[in-house]
């Protein structure tokens, strides 16, 4: 057993914020305090001009094992339904914070991402997975259904039959297969997912941060917007962008045949 008290590690790497779920003795099983802390840190990062990207990872050999079944078993026996409702509300606020953060959030996945761990990884904008990583929508194996946006993400990212396979069987899926399906962006050597994610995050963080934030909002809202409303959103954001400092620097650099410097 680890002597480390379960906590969220908050690290800065230049313009990149790293958030590490540190509970390796339980494969970084999710806790309500984890969800609350992660949601708060993501909201702070969204408004922090000194941060350009976020990396989310787990300490040790695994990303996140999802919910702690022992705790859920105790809740089922000893606590009212409202307690579980509030626990999942904490997870939902964490997921919303990922989607609403104006900065790109990259999941760095080693080992297992199971249950809510898989849901969390799917909520991130980008995903780097170690070549030995395994993803499992494991809820059904214990008689539960996914939470934390698991079915929402699968249903939008995959053909219906494949989404049903992953959610209804709870079968483990290798990182390479998810990469072939477009859910994993990059495969890293085992033990190197975090380093690869930090490197990619640094590249994004040194780019046009405000433009990336607008792009993220457009991609998120495209999931619910109708076509005409989305055209109007893109138009409004393009006009705002053109008269902003980033476009001034970016277009000027292009015309002057030099590299744009968005952060001086």
Explained architecture:
The chain has 11 helices and 9 strands. By secondary structure, the protein is an alpha/beta fold. Helix 1 (32-46) packs parallel to helix 3, helix 4 packs across helix 5 and helix 9 (209-221) packs antiparallel against helix 10 (227-242). The longest helix is centred in the middle third of the chain and has 20 residues, at 81-100. The radius of gyration is 19 Å and the shape is globular. It has helices at 32-46, 69-78, 81-100, 116-123, 150-157, 160-169, 175-181, 193-205, 209-221, 227-242, 245-255, and strands at residues 7-13, 16-22, 53-58, 105-109, 112-114, 126-130, 134-136, 173-174, 186-188. Strands 1-2-3-4-6-9 form a 6-stranded mixed beta sheet, sandwiched between helices. Strands 5-7-8 form a 3-stranded mixed beta sheet. It folds into 2 domains: 7-205, 2-enoyl-CoA Hydratase, Chain A, domain 1 (Alpha-Beta Complex), CATH 3.90.226; 209-255, Orthogonal Bundle (Lyase 2-enoyl-coa Hydratase, Chain  A, domain 2), CATH 1.10.12. The mean pLDDT is 96. The termini are far apart.
């Amino acid at each position: 057993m680890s002597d480390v008290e379960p906590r969220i590690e908050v690290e800065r790497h230049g313009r990149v914020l790293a958030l590490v779920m540190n509970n390796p003795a339980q494969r970084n099983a999710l806790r309500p305090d984890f969800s609350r802390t992660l949601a708060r840190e993501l909201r702070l990062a969204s408004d922090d001009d000194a941060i350009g990207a976020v990396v989310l990872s787990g300490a040790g050999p695994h990303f996140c094992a999802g919910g702690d079944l022992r705790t859920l078993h105790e809740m089922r026996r000893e606590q009212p339904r409202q307690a579980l409702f509030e626990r999942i509300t904490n997870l939902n606020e964490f997921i919303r914070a990922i989607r609403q953060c104006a900065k790109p959030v990259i999941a760095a996945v080693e080992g297992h991402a199971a249950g809510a761990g898989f849901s969390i990884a799917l909520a991130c904008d980008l995903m780097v997975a170690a070549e030995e990583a395994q993803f499992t929508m494991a809820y059904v194996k214990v008689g539960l259904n996914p939470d934390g946006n698991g079915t929402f993400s699968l249903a939008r990212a995959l053909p219906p039959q494949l989404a049903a396979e992953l959610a209804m069987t709870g079968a483990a899926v290798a990182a390479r297969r998810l990469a072939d399906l477009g859910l994993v962006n990059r495969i890293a050597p085992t033990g190197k997912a975090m380093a690869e994610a930090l490197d990619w995050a640094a590249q994004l963080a040194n780019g046009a941060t405000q433009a990336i934030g607008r792009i993220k909002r457009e991609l998120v809202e495209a999931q619910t917007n109708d076509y005409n409303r989305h055209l109007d959103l893109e138009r409004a954001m393009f006009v705002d962008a053109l008269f902003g400092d980033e476009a001034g620097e970016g277009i000027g650099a292009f015309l002057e045949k030099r590299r744009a410097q968005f952060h001086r």
